[in-house]
Write a structure and sequence with these properties.
By secondary structure, the protein is an all-beta fold. The protein has 2 domains: 4-112, Methylamine Dehydrogenase, Chain H, CATH 2.130.10.30; 119-339, Sandwich (Jelly Rolls), CATH 2.60.120. It has 1 helix and 25 strands. It has one helix spanning 109-116, and strands at residues 4-9, 13-18, 23-29, 40-49, 57-62, 66-71, 76-80, 95-100, 120-122, 134-135, 139-144, 147-152, 158-162, 171-179, 186-194, 199-206, 211-218, 221-229, 240-247, 250-255, 258-264, 273-279, 287-298, 308-309, 337-339. A hairpin with a 3-residue loop joins strand 5 and strand 6 (66-71). The longest helix is centred in the N-terminal third of the chain and has 8 residues, at 109-116. The radius of gyration is 21 Å and the shape is elongated.
């Protein structure tokens, strides 16, 4: 079984968490601890999918005859034996499939999830890994040939696509990106996403001019934080590896393994989302971007390098792991992308 994040064992059964957030179990199944909707006195000799958990799980644990996961939106699900209420659903009935753990208002699961900070890797080989797929008159997003495709149809449009991961505070986010056919104006990473895209940062590259830009968006609109030309940006349709290290107010940008500098801005702080951004030229439609190897991990504990920029007073931003409603631009529910306000750089 390729692409595993972790394996846990209970009493005579085993479960695995895949790189895409799915869960598979095998072995003994007398209390439904395999989570596949069956119960049997005979052992299951090969891994089976846990029903409802082909993606979206970020952490996995096993008890004697039951298992639990933390989900990407900050909840928990359990299945299997429940004679002492270990499934947390308010009953003592065992369950053959995952049930939601019921928390009182005094328990806040996102805190536990953020502290755990599990790594997230998606090579887009599994169309069920959780990214949105669909199409309307302006945007087409899909899994295609082990990549994630973002096609912006009209000229002069910008779209942000949030990743199906939990929100983090200090993190490293990376992506391989390229253009298919004619290049658009920019692709890159969107991070620091708050609410319905009310605030966020973008790290974008223009492969025609070999420039990079760091922007902040908030109630005041777009604000340039930094930018420069870089010959390390691969030209045209070649692949570029982009990386953002966010630690406190420090934002470090890397391109193809080379440090491009650190800027400081604390306007957006707390637990925020990450994702992808693509934009088309103002006079050229059909910007077709392809992404691969999206990675999200904890920021290194070592101090970041010095750079340019001006520090700002951090804003209060409480953790929020519930998927946001992104309004009229959503294609299907639950939607994670939105057309963003226009700005003048490179457009």
């Amino acid at each position: 079984m390729a692409g595993l994040k972790s394996i846990v064992t209970g009493r005579e059964y085993t479960c695995a968490l895949t790189a895409h957030g799915g869960v598979k179990c095998w072995g003994k199944n007398d209390f439904g601890q395999l989570g596949n909707g069956t119960v049997s006195g005979r052992g299951q000799l090969k891994p089976v999918d846990v029903i409802g958990l082909t993606n979206g799980a970020t952490a996995l644990a096993a008890g004697e005859s039951h298992s639990c996961v933390v989900t990407a939106i900050g909840g928990a699900k359990c299945w299997g034996s429940n004679d002492f209420g270990q499934l947390g659903d308010g009953t003592t009935h065992f369950s053959l499939t995952p049930v939601d753990v019921i928390f009182s208002s005094s328990i806040y699961m996102p805190i536990a999830l953020h502290n755990l900070c599990p790594d997230y890797l998606d090579d887009f080989s599994d169309p069920g890994s959780g990214w949105e797929a669909g199409e309307d008159e302006e945007l087409s997003v899909e899994y295609l040939n082990d990549e994630y495709r973002v096609l912006i149809k009209p000229a002069g449009a910008i779209y942000g696509i949030a990743a199906p991961t939990s929100k983090r505070q200090d993190y490293v986010v990376e992506i391989d990106a390229r253009w298919e056919g004619n290049s658009g104006v920019s692709y890159g990473l969107i991070f620091g996403i708050v609410g319905n895209y009310e605030q966020f940062y973008t790290f974008e590259v223009n492969t025609d001019s070999q420039d990079l830009r760091l922007y902040r968006y908030d109630a005041s609109g777009w604000s340039p934080l930094g930018g420069k030309g870089s010959p390390l940006i691969n030209y045209g349709t070649a692949i570029n590896h982009l990386k953002v290290i966010r630690k406190g107010s420090a934002i470090t940008l890397e391109i193809n393994g080379s440090d491009q500098g650190t800027w400081f801005d604390g306007t957006i702080s707390g637990y925020t989302g990450v994702g992808l951004i693509v934009s088309s030229y103002s006079d050229v439609p059909n910007a077709d971007a392809r992404f691969d190897n999206f990675t999200l991990s904890c920021a290194p504990k070592a101090g970041s390098s010095s750079g340019t920029g001006a520090p700002a007073t951090p804003a209060s931003n409480a953790p929020d792991l519930i998927p946001v409603n992104v309004g009229p631009d959503r294609l299907t529910a639950p939607a994670w992308f939105r057309r963003l306000p226009s700005q003048n750089s490179w457009r």
